[in-house]
């Protein structure tokens, strides 16, 4: 039996103008002065990102992390079954808040290697149908593989994909079902529940090539103000929003769009009629947050977010009383259940076991050899061969594509970020998963044109990743990395620190972390000469960054010279297959180092001299 203790605040709260303490549904005949009561339990997942099993495909072992979380829908299914048994299946809904079909080799394989557009059934569709989801909102990563793949996935589901603000480019009408209305019976009276789906507008930037001219993405608050009144007009007693948008306000793309990336809190505060929000996108855990409405005095709106990858299941309980001919929400609370407390559901696991085995064989297939080991463990604070490898392949692909164009003579530089601290390519045989582990996102490659001044501005922006120091150290890695963003005030993640390199050792720069942000790039040279601000360069860059992700300067307006929609991870794999041998001595360059007032900074774990 699973312990289902509530975590996250119980007690009296105000909902829709009525106040009472926690209450369970009443059974049996009503007393003359007793209102009819109904408890609805809504279960929620989000950001499952292609995880069915508790498995790390890049390590080919059972998943584990420092908190000993477990992941995957097979374990979520066990939790769902337990909650349905406890609460009553007839009084339970199961929702998801998006980012389902991207994120693991399992998801990639059935999008690209044996694509569902060719007749395969997506493992996530198999699992979610078996678990019995009622609806799922679209996430931004649903658009990564294009509309054809997304529509194929939709056709394989037994439940609707919801997205009220994924609208037709011309007409503005939603191209997916905007909401779902479910009707329950309590004491012979109908209880109508509306479920609205919304996605972060950042899709317009991050997957511009897949959606431009076809799909627009109005703001979350703006579209909810259109749709929630429709649900209320249809008689909905309760409105729940499955919203793929973080609860902490802000945007990774700055002011590139008029609508914020993370708007779940604003939705709760500013849209009348919303009772609860299942939050997604941010990959954080919100057990329970009762947000005061700014438009309905005294009302609290429930927010919860169940972390990511199937680590948690949110459990929302809504108590409604039938008062004067209508249902009134009088109490709402939430808690989360941890997937590491249960075993996997054998039925769900069996449905996907063959797919899992096929993908394990794929990721473990040998595609080449490497003459010496490369690791990304220290890439966030020192120049490493692992990042040089990515930049070498990217720059080479862009340079080859520009042959015969007016820009073929321009020097090509490249940017890459330390996505995965655990990534490593061993000496000896190299498998798909070894190479894929260096690049864990499904980004595609572009080439843009920059001036020398823009190169420096880009590097200055990236250098904000480092904390300010007063001397050369030595320091622990966390003492110099992960500074607070000067624009958002939040910690800058590793993936928003870009390292610039190229095909050879022509580029060099120092990052002086004793200097203020914006004044840190020193000794910036190309081919041994100080970079001319007016000089022209081609920058190999990923689609997330080029479209504004991370807010780096100059990228969204820079001329695009190359965009063949080729995935960078696949480029790395194909390069390894074609070359047969990865020899780091052929591409390792010494492009950058950390200094403090000109003196090399010593970071624990770095190679001698701060290089490799």
TrEMBL record:
Keywords: Hydrolase, Metal-binding, Nucleotide-binding, Signal
GO cellular component: outer membrane-bounded periplasmic space
Location of the 5'-Nucleotidase C-terminal domain: 366-555
Biological processes, Gene Ontology terms: nucleotide catabolic process
Gene3D superfamilies (alphabetical): 3.60.21.10, 5'-Nucleotidase, C-terminal domain
Domain of life: Bacteria
Molecular function as annotated in GO: hydrolase activity; metal ion binding; nucleotide binding
Residue ranges of domain Calcineurin-like phosphoesterase in the record: 41-284
PANTHER family in the record: 2',3'-CYCLIC-NUCLEOTIDE 2'-PHOSPHODIESTERASE_3'-NUCLEOTIDASE, 5'-NUCLEOTIDASE-RELATED
Record family assignment: Belongs to the 5'-nucleotidase family.
Protein name: Bifunctional metallophosphatase/5'-nucleotidase
Gene source species: Pedococcus bigeumensis
